[in-house]
UniProtKB/TrEMBL annotation:
<comment type="similarity">
    <text>Belongs to the ABC transporter superfamily. ABCB family. Mitochondrial peptide exporter (TC 3.A.1.212) subfamily.</text>
</comment>
<feature type="transmembrane region" description="Helical">
    <location>
        <begin position="85"/>
        <end position="105"/>
    </location>
</feature>
<dbReference type="GO" id="GO:0005743">
    <property type="term" value="C:mitochondrial inner membrane"/>
</dbReference>
<dbReference type="InterPro" id="IPR003593">
    <property type="entry name" value="AAA+_ATPase"/>
</dbReference>
<dbReference type="InterPro" id="IPR039421">
    <property type="entry name" value="Type_1_exporter"/>
</dbReference>
<feature type="transmembrane region" description="Helical">
    <location>
        <begin position="266"/>
        <end position="288"/>
    </location>
</feature>
<keyword id="KW-0007">Acetylation</keyword>
<dbReference type="GO" id="GO:0005524">
    <property type="term" value="F:ATP binding"/>
</dbReference>
<dbReference type="InterPro" id="IPR011527">
    <property type="entry name" value="ABC1_TM_dom"/>
</dbReference>
<feature type="transmembrane region" description="Helical">
    <location>
        <begin position="308"/>
        <end position="326"/>
    </location>
</feature>
<keyword id="KW-0479">Metal-binding</keyword>
<dbReference type="GO" id="GO:0046872">
    <property type="term" value="F:metal ion binding"/>
</dbReference>
<dbReference type="InterPro" id="IPR017871">
    <property type="entry name" value="ABC_transporter-like_CS"/>
</dbReference>
<dbReference type="GO" id="GO:0016887">
    <property type="term" value="F:ATP hydrolysis activity"/>
</dbReference>
<feature type="transmembrane region" description="Helical">
    <location>
        <begin position="43"/>
        <end position="64"/>
    </location>
</feature>
<dbReference type="InterPro" id="IPR036640">
    <property type="entry name" value="ABC1_TM_sf"/>
</dbReference>
<keyword id="KW-0472">Membrane</keyword>
Length: 616
């Protein structure tokens, strides 16, 4: 009865805590919620199997004691003894077989539920990371996030998978064992149980220490991953500077820090398991000593002492299992602390809320009104102060300025990657903060100076631009590639549009990447506004031509470095001292001998000698 009550109470607690954590995980994901009931069912079934297999295991010593008593009972004749012995052994074999099967089923079901929880944890965490605002990624290192996603989830998952199952079994067996010990001999039980309180205190102290150690280990591991990831992905820079050896020793240093923490953990675990092993042996010895005295006084039979010894053994194993369960659980919680933080974090900018304009209504007039902005990570250094700029619908505005003057920042604000600290940015008179950011970005085509292509086929990279990739036909992709002057070089690859690009595939030139990026931007339907950063790095005619086609009929803000781009624009805005210093047609700006634009052009040697002569 006592064992049953303890077990049921403990199972209910585990179920409650598990349920709450699971609901927390599932709160962001409909998929997780839909699978919640399913997982609780497998967990409950596993608990049922666990109860049965533990009952079988814990009844064994009692019946084995009976077997010993039958063997040692000198009062019965050999035939009767053989009959009782055979029937008891056959019955016990059957029960043991059922117990073994139940144990296997329990391990399987627990493992499956645990693996599903890990899978869900990873998917929910990834979704939570991708929803965060861009400023969050400015502050958080990529390696750290990768580590949370791979290592921390695995640690939390394994602590759930291995521990809940083993912990429940240990509680069931310890409870049942103590009850049976009390049943067989209360006085001997009281004597043996004196050892439990000091062991519990030791387990709690060690568990707490392991928890903080685990947190520190995971943090150091995240730093090591960050370092390795950054250096491997920038191997060309490392090679060019001949920094291989110093990078290897920097990584080795981080690995040493992890090793040192692992050593501390090993010391705690070694001490703890040494003490538990010793106490187990002392327990057995005490039973033999006290039990021997009780047997000598006829208070205990040989079978009862044997049963009691076996129960002591089981209880010892279960208590040791429980303390290791506690320490592993604490390690899991340590690794989990950062995970919960990340899971609970609400993004500061919404992802998919706000006004969506009816199809075809977007004209594309852009306006910055008295915008003041500083990056959240550098609040003390504003990039813009009271900046104002108007880009009429369908016009091309070339933005120029010295390096670091804020050209890219202007584009980031328009894409609403950040919100201004003061002032408003409007599109067709609508404050971008009121518009749905997802909808807004789907109407803004972007081509950056160094476009990023993913490690997949060219076809998938181009389709990435489409709002609804499933509705994109092969003809759409071919047409976009043709307009972007990319069709011919793509078809020249043996696998054509199915050629895999990126790290593991074909390496493309800067110009080829840009033309694929232009095709990708072209697939964005109804893109009234196009944000283009200058492609000066690749001075190819084919890229320029593709770019000009992309700009046709759209409002364009182009970060310009090339004279031809500037000449073709309807207006030029010059960024200086955190605001628009000059704005107008390029000839008008050039004619101002002391103007900033003219100086900038001269400095960048954009003006040919003849043009300078003519202007003089
Ligand atoms: N994510 C960021 N966090 C903090 N500061 C940033 C961030 N991005 C840019 N800055 C700072 O903001 C200022 C403007 O940067 P921005 O990249 O917009 O300039 P830019 O005119 O595009 O420069 P370039 O022509 O060299 O590309 C710079 O001082 C830069 O250091």
């Amino acid at each position: 009865c006592t064992a049953g009550c303890i077990f049921v109470l403990f199972s209910l607690c585990v179920l409650y805590v598990g349920n709450r954590s699971y609901c927390k995980l599932g709160s962001n994901s409909l998929y997780a919620q839909a699978h919640l009931a399913n997982k609780i069912n497998s967990f409950l079934t596993a608990v049922g199997f666990l109860t049965f297999s533990s009952a079988v295991t814990m009844s064994a010593p009692f019946f084995l004691g009976k077997v010993i008593d039958i063997i040692y009972n000198t009062g019965t004749d050999t035939e009767t003894m053989a009959t009782s012995l055979t029937s008891l052994c056959i019955m016990l074999t059957g029960v043991f077989l059922c117990g073994g099967a139940a144990n296997a089923a329990r391990v399987y079901l627990m493992q499956i539920s645990g693996d599903q929880i890990i899978r869900n944890l990873r998917a929910t965490l990834f979704s939570s990371i991708l929803r965060q605002e861009v400023a969050f990624f400015d502050r958080t290192r990529t390696g750290e996030l990768i580590n949370r996603l791979s290592s921390d989830t695995a640690r939390v998952g394994s602590s759930v998978t291995d521990n809940v199952s083993d912990g429940l079994r240990a509680v069931a067996q310890a409870g049942a064992g103590v009850s049976m010990m009390l049943y067989v001999s209360p006085s001997l039980t009281g004597f043996v149980l004196l050892i439990v309180p000091p062991m519990a205190v030791l387990a709690i102290v060690c568990g707490r220490y392991l928890r903080s150690l685990s947190k520190r280990t995971q943090d150091t591991l995240a730093e090591a991953t960050q370092l390795a990831e950054e250096r491997i992905s920038n191997i060309r820079t490392v090679r060019a500077f001949g920094k291989e050896l110093s990078e290897v020793s920097a990584y080795a240093q981080k690995a040493d820090e992890v090793l040192n923490l692992a050593r501390q953990e090993a010391v705690i675990r070694a001490g703890f398991f040494g003490v538990t092993g010793l106490s187990g042996n002392i327990m057995i010895l005490s039973v033999l000593y006290k039990g021997g005295l009780l047997m000598a006084n006829q208070h205990l039979t040989m079978g009862e002492l044997s049963s009691f010894l076996m129960y002591t053994f089981w209880v010892g194993i279960s208590i040791a299992g429980l303390s290791s369960f506690y320490s592993e659980l604490m390690k899991g919680l340590g690794a989990g602390a950062r995970l919960w933080e990340l899971l609970d974090r609400k993004p500061e900018l919404p992802l998919n809320e706000g006004i969506v304009l009816p199809p075809g209504q977007l004209k594309g007039q852009l306006e910055f009104c008295d915008v003041t902005f500083a990056y959240p990570s550098r609040k003390e250094a504003p990039v813009f102060e009271n900046l104002s700029l108007l880009v009429p619908a369908g016009s091309v505005m070339a933005v120029v300025g010295a390096s670091g003057s804020g050209k890219s920042t202007l584009v980031s604000l328009l894409l609403r990657l950040y919100d201004p600290d003061a002032g408003v940015i409007t599109i067709d008179g609508h404050d971008v903060r009121d518009l749905n950011p997802c909808w807004l970005r789907s109407h803004i085509g972007t081509v950056s100076q160094e476009p990023v292509l993913f490690s997949c086929s060219i076809r998938e990279n181009i389709t990435y631009g489409a709002v609804d990739p499933d509705s994109v036909t092969t003809e759409d992709i071919y047409r976009a590639a043709q307009v972007a002057n990319a069709y011919d070089f793509i078809q020249a690859f043996p696998k054509g549009f199915d050629t895999v690009v990126g790290e593991k595939g074909v390496l493309l030139s800067g110009g080829q990447k840009q033309r694929i990026a232009i095709a990708r931007a072209l697939l964005k339907v109804n893109t009234a506004v196009s944000l283009l950063s200058a492609l000066d790095a690749e001075n190819e005619f084919l890229v320029q031509e593709a770019l000009e086609r992309l700009m046709e009929g759209r409002t364009v803000v182009i970060i310009a470095h090339r004279l031809s781009t500037i000449q073709n624009a309807n207006a030029v805005a010059v960024l200086d001292q955190r605001r628009i210093a000059e704005c107008g047609q390029h000839t008008q700006l050039l004619s101002n001998r002391h103007g900033l634009f003219r100086k900038l052009m001269e400095k960048q040697a954009f003006l040919h000698e003849e043009q300078k002569q003519a202007l003089r």
